[in-house]
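In the previous chapter we treated chains in isolation. Here, by contrast, the input contains two separate entities that must be folded as one system, with a combined length of 216 residues.
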Amino acid sequence: MKSVIAATSLLLLAISSSLQAADLKAAEALAGEQCAACHGPTGVSQNPEWPIIAGQHADYLARTLRQYRSGEREDPLMQGIAAGLSDEDIRNLSAWYARQDGLKTKQY
Amino acid sequence: MKCMRATGLLTAALCLLLSSAVTAGDPEAGKIKASTCMGCHGIEGLTNAYPTFRVPRLGGQHAEYLVDAMQAYKEGRREHPAMRANMANLSEQDMRDIAAWFAAESRD
C-alpha cells in the first residue's frame, strides 16, 4: 500500500513538472537580452541570414536549442548562447517565441 | 574600336542579366519543385518520428536562410536523414526556387 502511494505521488510529480506552465515573463526578458539583437524584438529577424523564429513550433525550437547546447548542431554564435541556457530557459523561450506572430505552415 | 567597346559593354550587360536570372528564385517554379517538401512541411502540426518533434513551419521564412539550410543538409553540416536524401539531387537554382515559394507570404 505504501509503495503504491509512493509510486502514485512520484507519477503525479512527474506529470505536474512536465506540464508546468512556461514562464513567459521570464522568457520575454531573456529573449530581450540574449536573442533580440539578431532575431529581432519578437523573433522576426531583419537580416535574411538569420531565421525568423516567431511562430515556430515550440518543440522544434526547444530541440534546436538543445542541439546547439550539446554541439550536435554547429554554429559559433548559437552554440555560445545556448551554452548558457538551462532546460527551463529553453522551455520558456520556446513557448514564448511560438506565441509570437511570424511563421506559418505553408499550404497549397 | 568604338564598336568593340560597345560589344564589350553589351556582353557585360548580358552576363549580368544571365547571372541574375540564375540566382533569383522563382516562387512559381518553386511551388512545383516543393511538392515533396509539402508532404511534411505543408501539413500543420505533423510530427517527425524518432525523435518526436513537430516539422518546422517554413511559411514566411527568409529565402536566404532557407537556401543556406538546404545546402547545409545537402553537405551534411546539418543532420536529418530524410532532409539529406531530399536535398541530394537539388541544384542551387532548385533550392532558390523552393525557398522563394516558402518565403512568399503564406495563405494560412
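Chain B has a mean pLDDT of 88. Residues 5 and 11 of chain B are 10 Å apart (CA to CA). Compare these points with the single-chain example from earlier in the chapter.
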